[in-house]
Specification:
This protein is mainly alpha-helical. A three-stranded antiparallel sheet has the order 1-2-3. The radius of gyration is 28 Å and the shape is elongated.
Length: about 300
């Protein structure tokens, strides 16, 4: 068994030499590992490798995160440290790898961006310029009106599952679960304007609600392209994608009603946690809800 340098920095250098000569690590990898292992030496000072325990590793990772290092960067540091201690255990008889089982802090799940009510109004109130834009407006109104997923919308056929008189549609979501979604008056009107145009484009056997110029069912990529075109012509030039219309629906309904369970049902989320992550409320709205609803918050009570 090869001997190790007695000093911490010397062991780091020996490990990097091993990576370069035995594992054929790239210069980029070596540079990254060197940076993260030097960080380990600084955080552990004056302790040496044999003095570092799992609780100490956990505390050092916490210090990195508290100091502003992103969860992904903390994970990168832990990976480099884990490799170093694994090398000490396997090739040099060290007793433990204190980094095994240590997980980095969870990265916050990014919320999809939404449009404000005024921005949505400006976008959807624009008048179509041609027959295909009549279809486009109907698609975008339906996405925002119902909160359905893009794939759910494109699967809709002209059958009993689409009931414009009742203002609702039955869609099949993830894991084959069906649900009824609302269709608002603006979306119903846009769909009623589209249906006569659609009849001129499709062969008799085609049942898809939304079709291309040649009469085939619209694809997700085609909808994204048409939305981008619509935004450039009728919006403010900002990037908008179909999922933003779904998120805007959820945010606006939740801000107006405060009914998280109802929004969960309309979105087709299996778990309420998904709805809590997917939607957001600003603090001022929460404060207003509290002031108006909580018995101990009402003035004069």
């Amino acid at each position: 068994m090869a001997s190790l340098p007695s000093d911490f920095a010397g062991q780091i250098d020996a490990y990097l030499d091993y990576l370069a000569s035995q594992r054929r690590a790239s210069e980029h990898t070596l540079t990254n590992y060197r940076r993260e292992l030097r960080r380990l030496v600084e955080l552990a000072d004056p302790a040496g490798p044999d003095d570092i325990t799992a609780p100490r590793i956990r505390a050092m990772a916490g210090r990195l995160h508290a100091g502003g290092l992103a969860p992904r960067s903390v994970a990168r540091a832990l990976s480099a440290w884990r490799g170093f201690f694994r090398w000490r255990v396997r090739l040099h008889g060290a007793a433990i790898n204190p980094v095994e089982g240590i997980r980095p802090p969870k990265a916050p799940r990014p919320l999809p961006k939404s449009l404000g009510p005024d921005a949505v109004g400006q976008l959807l109130d624009a008048s179509p310029d041609d027959e295909l834009e009549i279809r486009d407006r109907a698609m975008f109104e339906l996405l925002y009106s119902s909160g359905m997923r893009l794939a759910e919308m494109l699967s809709i056929d002209l059958d009993a599952r689409l009931d414009l008189a009742a203002g609702e549609a039955t869609v099949t979501g993830k894991r084959g679960k069906t649900r009824v979604v609302p269709i608002g008056r603006a979306a119903v009107g846009a769909l009623q304007a589209w249906l006569p145009v659609r009849a001129q484009l499709v062969p008799a056997q085609e049942r898809a609600l939304f079709v291309t110029r040649t009469g085939s069912r619209m694809s997700q990529a085609a909808v994204r392209g048409r939305l981008n075109r619509w935004v450039q012509r009728h919006g403010q030039g900002a990037h908008v994608h179909p999922h933003m219309l779904r998120h805007s629906f959820a945010s606006h309904v939740l801000q107006s009603s405060g009914d998280l369970r109802a929004v969960q049902e309309m979105l087709g989320h299996a778990s309420i946690q998904s709805t809590q992550v997917y939607t957001h409320l600003d603090f001022q709205h929460l404060a207003k809800v509290y002031d108006s609803a909580h018995p101990r918050a009402r003035k004069g009570k």
